[in-house]
Amino acid sequence: MKIRAHAESHVVELDDGSQWQIFPGDLATTLSWKPETDLRLEPSDDRVSSHVLVNAADQTRVRVIAAGETWSDGEVKKSLKGG
Question: Taking the domains of the chain in order of start, what are their residue ranges?
Fold first, then answer.
């Protein structure tokens, strides 16, 4: 899948029309993404996110949830602290 829009740093829209919120701790990974970046959406077994977006070129992964959903405050704080 390709990126259709990434106007807000924390939300990405894919060419299939789906929109995903990027985990706050993973935003730096998305800075190199371009419209031609090939991404793959995979289910996640992480407690923080429901899915991951995988950059096909370098295999970097970012945790995501569907746009409109909310992150669990406790899990976000725990993950950002490295716990």
Answer: 3-80
